[in-house]
Structures are given as structure tokens and as C-alpha cells.
Design a protein that fits this description.
- The chain has 79 residues and is mainly alpha-helical.
- Helix content is 48%, strand content 8%.
- The chain contains 4 helices and 2 strands, in the order ααβαβα.
- The protein has a two-stranded parallel sheet with strand order 1-2.
- Strand 1, helix 3 and strand 2 form a beta-alpha-beta unit.
- The radius of gyration is 16 Å and the shape is globular.
Length: 79
Amino acid sequence: MLRRYGETALQEEIRALMKDWEEDLAMSETIFLRASTHGKRSFVGYEGAVIDKRDERLRVFPFPTRRPVSLSFNIEKSC
């Protein structure tokens, strides 16, 4: 239950931020977005979204990203 509350709160914060940036985004030539398929719903494709999911300016980063694992943290600490 706590996790879902946190996800909902984060989604609301992202959407409020997008609303604050609406004018800046409207003037942008290109919009880069990197999020999981599930995470993209916080930015595009919902009722009242600032950016339409079919917006031609929308680009994704061309490399995979994953959640860090404990091994990643250990490597960074040793550097």
C-alpha cells in the first residue's frame, strides 16, 4: 500500500511539474524522454497531458537503462 501511495504521489508531482513547464515545452523543438513503458504514463498519454504521446518532437534516449543493483553500489564506492 505504501509503495502505491509513493508511486501515485510521484506521478502527481511529475504531472504538476509538466504543467509548470507547459510554456517552455510548447516552445521546444525537441523533447527527450527516458522512462520505462509504465513510467511514460506519468509524462504522456493521459487525459490533459501537456505532451501528446504522438508528438513528433518527442524522442527517446537510444540506450537501455536499468535499475541499479547492489553490485553497482559496491563498484561506485570503491572508485
